[in-house]
Amino acid sequence: MATCSHGDHERAGPGGRKAGTRGAKPERVRLRIGNLAKAVLVSRQAYQDPKDALNEFVSNAADEYAEGDHRGERIRVLLRRRGVRPVIVVDDDGRGMSPDRRREVTRNLFESAKAGDDRTLGEKAIGILAFQQLGGRCDVVSRADGSTETWALRLSRGQADAQLERERRRARATPGTTVYLSDLDPDVLRVLTQRKVVDYLRARRSAALARGDYGIEVVEGRSVELVTPERPDGIRLEVPARSTLWGKIEFALYVAPPDGKRRRVAVVGRAGTSIIEHLCELDEFSGPPWDSDQVSGQIAFPALHQTAGRRAVLRDRDAFPVFVDALRAVTPAVARAVERVAREIDERTSERLADAVRRVFGRVLKELTELDNPMRSQLWDLDPSGSGDATRGGGGEGEEPLGGGRDGTEREGPGLDELLPPPSDPVSAPPPSAAEASDGKGDAGRRQRTSALPSLAVDPEPGSARSRFDPDRGMVLYNDRHADYLLVKDDEAAVLDYLATLVAKEYVVYNNPRAQPDELAEEMVRLLVRVRRHLPRRPSR
């Protein structure tokens, strides 16, 4: 690890005395373009965010570890935004750079030696110039592996020459590189806070961090925060990797129920670095299921390239069309998975709300004993053998044993549509109490027990009404396509109030078949007052 401490970083700043051999003049190194065609293309693009420019120096540190086959090493980003001489420092313990290597870099801008190495991100050889988006000066202080000398390469904004000289004041005791960015622009100081830098690096480097390629810590003052990878939640979809002429496209996708949380799928390129943070940034995939906030994870394809501004996928003629075709092929299956999860959650929510309505009306009916109650709610299914065990789906004839086929042999891996569990059985109400069991309406041989409480279900044949009562089933059927239901469906408390109101309406209509409108209105108010006294503030989960 480098010996330059946090205090050393803070003492470093613009305008300091030149370090080096006494009396020796710094060597002037002329900056040269190694690839003019690429320079013309890249110069049209600029970093849209100072964090993108800072990320270039983090990328260089990560590439050093990759090229040296070092895993799990630490990259340090130090922020000193206040004081007379603000400075940003990026430090690594990689192989370091010899003077000859630094001369080579400055004389071959836009011509990267890393372009063919999938372990590294560098591909345009302009990262060293990113400092101009942050400040006026960049000092690259480095000690090469196997050397005892520390050298500094100094660059200034707008200057065609760099200075290369021995560094003594900030000499490193171990190999590695420390980049000092100074003369920082005021806007940069406001943007590059510790919290924003940590969140940015987590989003852009989550795949590499999760693999353990390296670690990153961001330091500001006495606060040190380790950048941890994002953790997708939900059910993992085992989407097989797709082999192409440009390498594999690998999927790590998760589907979760809708809960108001923002979820995104990152597109990852070389070196485990996200090219874009959300797949929806591509016009081809800006709709369902990718914009549902139910799908998270990443899609990795090292053949994809970034634009120079590090904010978009380069739409080349080779790898990008292959990537688009592969995603279009898996999109329908992902959409079906999202629908299944949403449907299962809807079923669970509906049953939970119906149970809450039953409890409310259980109390209301005790207060209004004069109401004629035609409604019935199923309580319990009994085993036909009379054992009293609840019958549930599963385990029946025709099912395969867990983990294999009927003969116990191992099955082939599941397809995408098999990966999600089937919708859960409706949550049963508790078994009947002793008093209910002795009400004379049943015995141990009966398969179904019911209670004089309302039960709700979605109307399979909805009309224009909000709800209707089915006398044969003793059940209130509600219209889930009605404009009023759609108005409240995203608020569970509002849905519970709405369903309770519909049940109250059906009770009033049933008990007052010949009442006048004003009488119906009065009776409705009387019942609703009692219903709302017992409505929970939050539906139980």
Describe what you observe in this structure.
This protein has 541 residues and is an alpha+beta fold. It folds into 3 domains: 6-226, Histidine kinase-like ATPase, C-terminal domain (Heat Shock Protein 90, 2-Layer Sandwich), CATH 3.30.565; 235-336; 344-392 and 409-534, no CATH class. The chain has 11 helices and 20 strands. The chain has helices spanning 6-11, 36-42, 50-67, 99-106, 186-191, 194-211, 319-367, 434-437, 483-488, 492-511, 517-534, and strands at 27-30, 73-80, 87-92, 135-143, 150-156, 161-166, 176-184, 214-220, 223-226, 235-237, 242-244, 247-255, 265-268, 274-276, 295-300, 377-381, 448-451, 456-458, 467-470, 475-478. The strands form 4 sheets. A 9-stranded mixed beta sheet has the order 1-6-5-4-7-3-2-8-9. Strands 10, 11, 12, 13, 14 and 15 form a 6-stranded mixed beta sheet that branches. Strands 18-20-19 form a 3-stranded mixed beta sheet. The radius of gyration is 34 Å and the shape is elongated.
Q: Summarize this, please?
A:
The chain is built from eleven helices and 20 strands.
Query: Would you state the CATH class of the largest domain?
Result: Alpha Beta
- What structural class should be given to the helix and strand makeup? alpha+beta
Terminal Cα separation, in Å? Answer: 51 Å
The number of helical elements comes to: 11
